[in-house]
Amino acid sequence: MKAKSLAQNTLFLTLASALQKVIAFVYYSYLATGIGPAATGKYNFALQFASIFVIFMDFGLGPVLTREGARHEHEVEQNFRHTLGLKIVLICISLVAMAGVSAFGLTQFKNIDSTDLLLIGLAGIVIIFDTLTFSLFSTFRAFRNLAVESIAVVMYQLIIFGFGIFFITQHYPTPFLVGALIAGSLSNMIFVAILLKRKTHISFRPIFDRVQFKHLLRLSIPFALAGIFFKLSGSVDTILLKILSEDRFVGWYSLAYKLSFALTVLPGSFASSFFPVAAATFESEKTKLGSLFEKGTMYMMALSLPIAVGIFFLSDEIIFSVYGQAWEASVNPLKILGVALIFTFWNYPVGNLLNAANKQTLNTSNMAIALVVNIACNLLLIPKYTFIGAASSALISSLVLVLLGLPHVKKLTHFSWRSIFKQLFGIAAAAAAMGGLLVGLESVVKWYILVAISAVTYLILLRLVGVISAQDLQPILKRVWKK
């Protein structure tokens, strides 16, 4: 895929995912203010806990399906059918494990009750549909087709929004809110499955082949471990807060984490295009990996720095105006997590390039180290600082992960530090100027208007300092105009 195809795929999936996150933001805001910090804490704990087991259901098979399909398109159908068969086995094993761990938690921890177990059980249904849908998405990604995924993510969130708002306004109990997720996930899976069948005529009949299962597992284990470490890094803070503190602390932290994590849709969409391109480039044109990584780093810094600046200066305004005084405690952890986004964004090109270059074992080892750091920091800081300690742990571990990966990327690609720092200087200057604008206008302009003004100003500044050029924007603008 050419460079402009990477930009176009990233653009359209980013726009769709951004729209989905806007809808999710509005919905979650309504949910949080409607049910309060304690119930929100229970809701988020159940989803975070269940989401750990979806990694065991997928077991890294999604990236393998995408990578192998991007390299050998004639093998996509057989890989998909074997993956489907293996996933059925993994889903059964994971559900049994989740039930056992949940029952153990009920008996061992006083902060976990029967309502938590019911919510976890319903969340288990959600993750079954989600892991099957992910295999469908992974197949489309192998063909460099992100249009279906772009449509599906928006449709998915609209269904959740519709059901969820109805349940909240009618004062249904919290389990019904998880039911809204079930409706969205089921509809999403059916929609994507129908389109995949129509566009590719791939058979959905699973193949149960022990030899092929072993082959897929050998390929997927590094990705699976990376997924487990990544998910635990994002979930362990919520789980430890639940065990070591109270539901309201989980609720306050979850709101801050939800707002910041929603923004990872931007690097996530980029990675969906970057990963197959990096895999194909490594296979045929290794000398171009350095420039590809530099471009990816530039994209991530250009996105993350203004976001971090905006969150730092506007977090209190956003929390108070949208959620009210009951959520004031979420302001400080949101600021900390905003800074952490800089390193979280940067790790997307770092980690995805290592995976694309068959260095997934190394990348997984780095994630394991970062996870250990995260858990240690949480155990040390949560008892004294609760959600502030959890947010600080996330910042520390995200920095550690980038620092571990960069030296290996340097050896692999021989990218230019001088080029990266030159671009980073221009981006930082534009973000700093944008921050000055925020400070100057914060007291006289509404925060949502100020976000729009500062975003436009920042893009103009990027153009002026030479970080982006008219040539960078021309292919995208032409495609948008044609649409």
Number of helices: 15
SSE class: mainly alpha
Fraction of residues in helix: over 70%
Low-confidence stretches: 475-483
β-strand amount: under 5%
Task: Compute the average pLDDT.
Answer: 84
For the terminal residues, how far apart are their CA atoms?
20 Å
**Strand segment count:** 0
- H/E element sequence: HHHHHHHHHHHHHHH
Based on CA atoms alone, the radius of gyration comes out at 22 Å
Largest sheet report: none
Shape: globular
Description:
With 483 residues, the chain is mostly helical. It is 87% helix and 0% strand. The radius of gyration is 22 Å and the shape is globular. The C terminus is likely disordered.
Which short descriptors sum up this protein?
mainly alpha; 0% strand; single chain
Question: What's the short version?
Answer:
The chain has 15 helices and no strands. With 483 residues, it is mainly α. The radius of gyration is 22 Å and the shape is globular.
Helix/strand layout:
Layout (H helix, E strand, L loop, with lengths): L2 H56 L2 H11 L4 H33 L5 H29 L4 H23 L4 H27 L9 H35 L2 H15 L3 H20 L4 H34 L8 H26 L3 H54 L3 H25 L5 H18 L5 H13 L1
Helix pairs in contact: 1-3, 1-4, 1-5, 1-7, 1-8, 1-9, 2-3, 2-4, 2-7, 2-9, 3-4, 4-6, 5-6, 7-8, 7-12, 8-11, 8-12, 9-10, 9-11, 10-11, 10-13, 10-14, 11-12, 13-14
